[in-house]
């Protein structure tokens, strides 16, 4: 929901996990570049495990800090848009919008809907109709065991997961989205539902 150009952020309250994550972002080195430079002495780092170059640039960090300062505003706006989607889509039979769980509030990083098995059009046909209207949407909840990367691996029967994967799609949602843009999305969904 916020950006640093590319990449993400990991937060944890586990000190050992945090230390390992910091090490992994710098090629798995036992001593970070910042620690090495600050020591004022020659330090021979060791590579304790295979790591990556996931260090953020200073420019990315500056962008991220500005974005972080806007996080509450962005989440509030996304929640407002999600509530509006829920109102716009509520009259469509066989279409169930995502909602907050009973135990908390979501940030609506994405907004997905679930189609009933008897919805007048399938998920892929609905995606085509949205695309024809110039609306970028995508398939919804994905199931790892159905993806080519996991072909040939054993998987337990997951009928609910597979149904949700088959019948869900993610609608456009971004904090600068206008009501007119939302209305266009809703209009296509109503039309495809036969209303």
Sequence stretches where pLDDT stays below 50 over 5 or more residues: none
Indicate the overall shape: elongated
Give the helix proportion (percent range).
Answer: 40-55%
What is the averaged pLDDT score?
A: 91
Proportion of beta-strand residues:
5-15%
Question: In oligomeric terms, what are we looking at?
Answer: single chain
Series of secondary-structure elements, N-terminal to C-terminal: HHHHEEHEHEH
User: What is the gyration radius calculated from CA atoms?
Assistant: 22 Å
Structural class computed from helices and strand pairing: alpha+beta
Distance N terminus to C terminus? 33 Å
Beta strand count: 4
Give a quick account of the main beta sheet: strands, pairing sense, barrel closure: 4 strands, antiparallel
**Biggest sheet, strands in spatial order?**
1-2-4-3
* Count of individual helical segments: 7
């Amino acid at each position: 929901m916020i950006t640093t150009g590319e990449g993400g952020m990991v937060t944890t309250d586990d000190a050992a996990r945090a230390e390992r994550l910091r090490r992994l972002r710098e090629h798995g080195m036992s001593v970070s570049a910042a620690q090495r430079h600050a020591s004022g002495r020659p330090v021979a780092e060791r590579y304790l495990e295979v790591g990556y170059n996931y260090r953020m640039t200073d420019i990315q960090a500056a962008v991220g800090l500005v974005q972080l300062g806007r996080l509450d505003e962005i989440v509030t706006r996304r929640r407002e848009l999600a509530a509006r989607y829920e109102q716009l889509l509520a009259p469509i039979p066989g279409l169930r919008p995502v909602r907050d769980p009973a135990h908390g509030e979501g940030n609506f990083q994405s907004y997905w809907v679930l189609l009933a098995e008897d919805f007048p059009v399938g998920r892929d046909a609905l995606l085509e109709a949205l695309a024809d209207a110039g609306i970028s949407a995508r398939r919804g909840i994905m199931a790892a065991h159905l993806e080519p990367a996991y072909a040939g691996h054993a998987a337990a029967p997951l009928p609910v997961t597979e149904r949700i994967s088959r019948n869900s799609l993610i609608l456009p949602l971004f904090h600068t989205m206008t009501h007119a843009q939302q209305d266009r999305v809703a209009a296509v969904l109503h039309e495809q539902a036969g209303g």
